[in-house]
Write a structure and sequence with these properties.
- Strand 2 and strand 3 form a beta hairpin.
- With about 325 residues, the protein is an alpha+beta fold.
- It is rod-shaped.
- The chain starts with a helix and ends with a helix.
- The strands form three sheets. Strands 1, 2, 3, 5, 6 and 7 form a six-stranded antiparallel beta sheet that branches. A four-stranded mixed beta sheet has the order 10-4-9-11, with no helix packed on it. It has a two-stranded antiparallel ribbon with strand order 8-12.
- It is built from seven helices and twelve strands.
- Helix 3 runs antiparallel to helix 4, helix 4 runs antiparallel to helix 6 and helix 5 packs antiparallel against helix 6.
């Protein structure tokens, strides 16, 4: 039943507390050494907060104690760093070793403290200036027959609750994100990032119109049911309305106008692919409709190549006449 279960837990806690008190108060005597005191600081440590275990050990003047740097973990208490120790003179020519180990508890209520594994070596002579305490790492240098291994039980501790949780009025609120970019950002890296983004934006602005002219507009025309000639003439009118040939962008004006011609030729003649050069395109069109059908285009296409890849810059009126040549040829060209 529930009352019996609570009584069993209470009796178990009393037994553990009594055992821990016995360990903490009763000195342990082993051959060549004696555990004098085990003390905690603070005496009632809190959960998840570091505390210190102080141990006083007396050894004979002819004994050397090899001490662990850290203590092994138990179910509820772990070591959080290396220990320290000092030596002082004690009654009867003995030496007192005072050890301090930092610990932390992860279990509320009674918990066993970590034991101290002690390696003790005794001889007939006093140790002198070598001291009575050394690191356990040096124990391997001693012969197994010369070292006596002992485990000193340090008792139990009653861990209190986590201190910040004791205040019932504390309201836990999430904090806003801090230093989202990280702490390693330099002004040069930030500048490089901004310039890269600006370059990408400029590339999009320059490429999107051409992409729309070559892919988006024809696709939209097919969806709207326009013929290749209607869509080509519509796109040519849009290009002229942009006014590139009047704003110093003559190369863009010629490039866009001849691209319309290429798309129109590709739609009415699949073999006239966009990958063809201007010379190859004119040859394909000549094969399809004969020399008489494209003679007005030859000079215009050749001039467009010189404008796009050379230094030639026709006036706006001349550029619009070439534009009209392309438009008129598309108007007269058969679609089948």
């Amino acid at each position: 039943s529930e009352p019996m279960r609570r009584l069993s837990i209470l009796l178990m806690a009393l037994v553990i507390w009594a055992a821990g008190d016995a360990h903490a108060q009763s000195p342990q005597a082993i051959d060549g050494a004696r555990l004098v005191e085990v003390r905690l600081e603070p005496e009632a440590p809190s959960l998840a907060l570091a505390f210190q275990l102080h141990v006083r050990l007396r050894v004979r003047p002819t004994a050397v104690a090899f001490l662990p740097d850290t203590l092994p973990p138990t179910d509820g208490v772990h070591s959080v760093g290396p220990g320290e120790w000092t030596e002082v003179a004690a009654p009867g020519d003995s030496v007192e070793i005072r050890m301090t180990y930092p610990l932390i508890g992860f279990q509320e209520g009674p918990a066993e403290l970590p034991p101290i594994e002690l390696w003790l070596r005794t001889s007939g002579d006093e140790m002198g200036s070598e001291g009575a305490a050394r690191s356990a790492g040096e124990a391997a240098a001693a012969a197994a027959t010369e070292v006596d291994r002992r485990v000193l039980r340090t008792g139990f501790v009653d861990m209190g609750p986590f201190v910040p949780m004791l205040d019932e009025n504390v309201v836990l609120e999430p904090r806003p994100a801090a230093d989202v970019l990280g702490g390693v950002w330099s002004i040069w890296r930030l500048l490089a990032t901004v310039l890269t983004l600006l370059g990408l934006a400029l590339a999009v602005v320059m490429l999107v119109p051409r992409w729309w002219a070559s892919i988006g507009a024809p696709m939209l025309a097919r969806l709207r049911g326009r013929s290749p000639r209607q869509e080509a003439l519509r796109e040519l009118e849009r290009i002229r309305s942009e006014g590139w040939h009047k704003d110093g962008r003559t190369d863009d004006f010629y490039a866009a106008s001849t691209d319309v011609l290429r798309h129109f030729a590709e739609r009415i003649e699949p073999e006239s692919r966009m990958a063809l050069t201007s010379t190859e395109l004119v040859s394909k069109l000549e094969e399809r409709w004969g020399a008489g059908g494209i003679e007005t285009l030859v000079s215009t296409v050749e001039l467009a190549e010189r404008v796009k890849f050379g230094d030639e810059q026709p006036e706006a009126e001349a550029a619009e006449r070439d534009w009209s040549t392309i438009r008129n040829w598309i108007r007269r060209a058969p679609e089948g």
